[in-house]
Amino acid sequence: MLGSLVSAFLLLAAPVRAEGCLVLPSGQCQVEAPRLLPAGSIEARLDSGARLVVVPAPTTDRVAIELRFRPPQPGPTGTSPGAQAQADAVIAALLGGETAGASGPARRQRRLLLGAQEELLPVEPGAALRVKGPSDHLGELLSLESERLADFSPTAAAVQAGLLASLAARRRSLGDPEHLLLDLALPGPRGGAPPSLLGVQDRYQSGWLGAALTVVVAGDVDLQTGLDLARQAFESLPGGSAGADSATPAPAATRPSGTGLSTQAASSAVGLSRVAVAWSAPPAPAGSRRAAARVLLTELLAGPDAPLQRQLVQEQGLVRRLWVAPRTDAVVVLAEIEPDAHPGAVHAAVEQAAQALVDGSAAELPTRLDAARAHLARQSVLRLEQPGDWASLVAEAVSAGAPAAAVDRHADLVQEIGLDEVQALAAELLRPEFLREVVLTPTEER
Amino acid sequence: MIPSLLLLSACWTRAPGPAPLALADGPVASFEERVPANAVDLVLAVRAGSAHDPVGAEGLAWLTAHSLVEGGGAALQDQLYVLGTRLEVEVGPELVTFHLRCAADDAVTCGEVLAAVLTKPALDGPALERAREQDRTALLDAARGPADRLADRIFDHWSYEGHPYGHAAEGRLGVLDTLDLAQVRAFYDQRYLRPATALGLAGQPSAEAVVDVQAALVGLPPRLYQDVTPRRLPPVQGRRLLVVHAPVPEARIVLGQALDLGPADPDRVAIEAGLAILGQGADSRIAHALRVEDGADVQVDVRLDAPGDRIQPALRIALRPAEGQDLSAAAVAVSELQRMVDQGPSADELQLWQAAARSRAQAEAANPVARARAATEHFLLGVPGLDARLAAIASLDPAAVQAALARRVHPVDLRIVLVTAAASAAGVEEPVEEPVEEPTASPVPGPTSGPTTDYGLNLVAVTLASSEELLR
Predict the structure, then answer these.
(1) Would you say A442 and B144 are in contact if contact means Cβ atoms under 8 Å apart?
(2) For residue A365, what are the CA distances in angstroms to A359, A378, B80?
(3) Does residue B295 belong to the interface with chain A, where contact is any CB pair within 8 Å?
(4) In chain B, positions 395-424, which contact chain A (CB-CB < 8 Å)?
(5) Core-most of A34, A145, B468, B469, by most CB within 10 Å?
(6) B-chain residues within 8 Å CB-CB of A105?
(7) Is B430 helix (H, G, I), strand (E, B) or coil?
């Protein structure tokens, strides 16, 4: 039925599709991905090493600035990953909360009077700060952000407050069942003593440098003006070595090797039990074929149109809801299971679906790949609504070491990549030795 | 007699709500926010929210809205998948809102999909059962989740006792299994009406898409909408405390009162300003006072319900007290509320709030989807538009804020809900030891007098074996 729906859909939209048709070697016509990045975006690298992108996104008199820090991961002789991650979390909390310097509250007031709003986005590793405001105050807003970075000199009391704030943020995040499941399935670096004032200062001075910073200005902005103002604000930042390269493999601890299936159980305040089935994987560079192939793999494995959905939700009635988590370091299937269902049955079905994808035994795979491409092409357009969405999308790609054009490159690749490539990747990633399972049950049941 | 009645009905200016007779037989009101964009947003609001649930059938509005979507079955899901989107449904006390976001090229198809869900519903048994299971999950999540939602719901039950807002949109666990297909179909027939529906479009939909969706929505019946709100609010006299002992991980306090403020009442923005200064953010008065008093960072949030949510809003001060603080934190909050009502904000405080509020309103005005949604709320509920809001924000001064607070907010008459796992909350004498009896029509005990606390509050105490009991 889906095949006929896809055909009907393509026919309905025939005039547009005809213009954007990519002819494959097989003679098949594929939908061309729409351009995501507005024409005329500018990219620059400042002397401080910071990457800068200006995106003229359609809007009315508003601009969004996103600062994304991706401090380098520890080298073999550096501080322990856990201690460093704690220091990074404290720095992020202090930069976001502005409790670090005495001028923080004054800056917050100035920002309010300029009519700007700000938020600290949960981004790991590092931090992302987004400020939105009227475009005629762009210069002042950029200057306030650069002041925030230059003034960072916390006291011991501020570090203590930052530590509490970061712990509270972590507690809040683990209050969300999905975060808790992912945290258990794919644990980040942990451990080490709480960071000291000296530890935080050292980490800030050695890691939170220009080379680790991406600045994106999106919205109602004149390209040259945006470039000049941002250059003026961030040029004088201390430089340093580049942040974590997108191709750097994930820390070994996050990827079990040769240990077989690892299962964990936990309880939380949830209505129904939840299960995460996760294959950890090395991060794929943004804009690469692997990244695009992984998106298609996830979609075919457990997307809304996957047979696994029909099997578990409708036919067997084991699962209330099945979805995938968008991770760059893993392929993760999440399920909310019915009270009388056994988590093991869900896990077995997910593994079976993975095997079917690897073997290519499912006859409908080519049709589903077409539907998945159509779905992903439109979904990427629909995610972009406001200047902040543009800023976030571009910042994510650029901070991972890719050019801004990777945003469009990714969309093109999703349309280009064939089933054989997806299956080869599935065979490489969906192996039992990389598998973890986490079961989260309602508190009362334990 | 009859002509004079007709004349009377023609002159009667109902506010809020859509009801003029001429509208009933016309097309569905639609509002376009045209901006260059790759996407088109269709927002369809129907005045069929949970306030319209009949007594004893709480949750019917929620079930009906979700059954409409579930009625599309696998075919609808496949269609939405290829369109790269999903149909979002939001059921509030007043409005049910359907939101579909599509690529601009797909606007015609999306309009057809959305209109079909509403005008050609497949309300059958399987759809109802799927919706019922979703409802059950939502209710259980609320009961077993953090204390925030539980405390909020208990506060709503109590503050709006006997009022259409007195239950959660999802209804009650004890009622859920009694609702049947005939009731869902009857609710759809009675409430999904042309004059009670408004369509907002944002982006650059083609003329064909707009015409098609408007034509399809004419399929909704042209009967007159009968309102259920505004209604008289239950009176509150004195400060009344309800202590709920429940298995929650951390204590939560919600205190406040329901206010009889219409959506366009000129006092509304002034009260909103005073409350934000009182308790929003780390620099707010309550947060500051609690830091000074106890040296602890207590999470606080003070707000007035949005007019698009409830046309008769509640003022609520939500506190997550530090361990052992419980009612001392509530006492600080009440004392700060009294001070704000007596003295109003300072000029500096108000200026900062105005800057922040203007920025938020401008950001909303820059968002075409928010503008489309605001237009539907203006039509259906009489909520002032964004321009009127900006003007109201700019025109405030400290004296006006104080005067509005003094007129409308009465800190001597408050309902205070404390949800705690502690055996005896700090400052509360031994609670009345009586287990909850079999649930009755209202799951929250009535305002009977009980013992008093250290703070001179009338106390009603409830002990629960499970949080779910309160939602039955």
Answers:
(1) yes
(2) 11, 20, 19
(3) no
(4) none
(5) A145
(6) 283
(7) coil
Question: Is the backbone peptide bond immediately before B16 cis, with ω within 30 degrees of 0?
Answer: yes
Note the pLDDT of residue B306. Answer: 94
Report pLDDT for A283.
Answer: 84
Mean pLDDT, range B296-308, rounded to an integer: 85
Apex B40 CA angle, B37 and B45, nearest 5: 135
User: Side chain identity at A438, as an amino acid letter?
Assistant: V
Q: In what order do the strands lie in the sheet with B39-46?
A: B29-34, B197-203, B39-46, B96-103, B88-91
- Sequence-distant (6+) residues with CB within 8 A of B316 are B152, B155, B254, B255, B256, B302, B303, B304, B305
Amino acid at B312: Q
Tokens 């920025």, located at residue: B359
Question: What pLDDT, in 10s, does the model give residues B216-274?
Answer: 999 999 988 989 999 999 988 888 888 888 777 788 999 999 999 999 999 999 999 99
**Do A439 and A307 contact (CB within 8 A), yes or no?**
no
DSSP helix/strand/coil, A108: helix
Rounded Cα distance between B314 and B254, Å, is: 11
Contact between residue B270 and residue B401 where contact means Cβ atoms under 8 Å apart: yes
Under a CB-based contact definition with an 8 Å cutoff, are residues A402 and A246 in contact? yes
**Helix/strand/coil for B138:** helix
Token duo for residue A115: 């009519």
Are B100 and B69 a contacting pair, CB within 8 Å?
Answer: no
User: How does DSSP classify residue A312?
Assistant: I
State how far the Cα of A200 lies from the Cα of A89, in Å rounded to an integer.
10
pTM of the full structure:
0.84
At residue A80, does pLDDT exceed 60? Answer: yes
Contact across the interface for A269 and B249, Cβ inside 8 Å = yes
Residues of chain A with C-beta less than 8 angstroms from the C-beta of B78: 1-2, 5, 305
Per residue in A357-399, pLDDT tens? 998 776 788 999 999 999 998 988 888 878 888 899 899 889 8
B35–A375 C-beta distance less than 8 A? no
Of A123-137, A419-433, B201-215, least confident by mean pLDDT is: A123-137
Which of A382, A389, A444, A446 has the most B C-beta neighbours within 10 Å, making it the best mutation to test the interface with B?
A: A382
In 3-state terms, what secondary structure has residue B169? Answer: coil
DSSP per-residue string spanning A157-212: HHHHHHHHHHHHHHHHHHTSHHHHHHHHHS-----SPPPPHHHHHHHHHHHSSGGG
Q: What is the helix, strand, coil percentage profile of chain B, to 5? A: 45, 15, 40
Instruction: Enter the ipTM.
Output: 0.79
